[in-house]
Amino acid sequence: MIKPQKIDLSESEGGIVADANLVVRRLKSDGLYKPNLMYRGFNGEDLSIMLKYGTDIPDSDMIYCGDENELREGDDMSALKYAYYHSNPALAVYDGSKLTDSEESYEKKRFIDSQQKLDALIAVYLLPKGEY
Q1: Phi/psi of residue 116, each to 5°?
Q2: Each residue of 79-129: pLDDT tens digit?
Q3: Which of 11-20, 64-73, 106-115 has the lowest mean pLDDT?
Q4: Domain span at residue 40?
Q5: What is the dihedral of CA 19, 77, 47, 111, to 10 degrees?
Q6: Of 38, 27, 19, the residue nearest 95 (C-alpha)
Q7: Is residue 120 part of a domain?
Q8: Max Cα-Cα span within the chain
Q9: What secondary structure, in 3-state letters, does the chain show?
Q10: Which end of the chain is more exposed for a tag (fewer CB within 10 A), N or C?
Q11: What does the alpha-carbon distance between residue 17 and residue 72 come to, in Å, rounded to a whole number?
């Protein structure tokens, strides 16, 4: 079972790239980093749903998430930016080998096995309140 961890972004030099670097460093120190990880920002108020189903939208097989490059870009839909749209920002990290491209234009990825969504989730990080 995944136990949510906190990431203290106060160590960051500021900005989305520096914060993304801290996330990657944390994944490495937790022994979870792989190059194919996918990242999804979500509302931490949905944490219990995320930990039970592996997604904050359990009735959907598709999720919007991005790779490490997108995490660093900082556009409005990057995982960190999206997390900070919520009052309780959180970040879900997925094993990219358990996701595939979605046919839907509004979604980025689809779970390969919709019965194993929780297996695709490898980490959940709670972020400090704030905004970009």
Answers
A1: -125, 35
A2: 988 898 898 999 999 999 999 987 766 568 999 999 999 999 999 999 887
A3: 11-20
A4: 5-126
A5: -110
A6: 38
A7: yes
A8: 40
A9: CCCCEECCHHHCCCCHHHHHHHHHHHHHHCCCCCCCEEEEEEEHHHHHHHHHHCCCCCCCCEECCECHHHHHHCCCCCHHHHHCCCCCEEEEEEEHHHEEECCCCCCCEEECCHHHHHHHEEEEEECCCCCC
A10: N
A11: 5
Nearest residue to 126 via CA among 92, 101, 102: 92
- Contact 71/23 with Cβ under 8 angstroms? yes
Domain annotation covers residue 131 = no
Q: Find tokens 């009052």 and name the residue.
A: 87
Strand order in the sheet with 99-101: 62-63, 109-111, 99-101
CA distance 45 to 54: 14
Q: 10 Å Cβ neighbour count for 43?
A: 17
Q: Name the residue with tokens 């297996």.
A: 119
Residue 132 domain flag: no
Question: Among residues 3, 131, 123, which one has the least CA distance to residue 65?
Answer: 123
**Main-chain phi, psi angles of 129, to 5 degrees:** -65, 145
Q: What's the full length of the chain, in residues?
A: 132
* Number of independent structural domains in the chain: 1
